[in-house]
Amino acid sequence: MSLPSFLLEILVCPQCHAPLTEAGEGEERELRCTGETCGLVYPVRDGIPVLLVDEARRPS
């Protein structure tokens, strides 16, 4: 189950304020920052985006 589209329209990266895109499926879902210089990846746990910079990871 993906996040509602209206939610994705308003969510932004807390680090650089760029829009986020949803990636992955099931337990592996995450939100990726579209900013060119940032690119952090935020986890989605139990359907809830965890938008904490300390919880984010750099893309591999």
TrEMBL record:
UniProt record similarity statement: Belongs to the UPF0434 family.
HAMAP family for the chain: UPF0434
Protein name per its UniProtKB record: UPF0434 protein ABWK59_13625
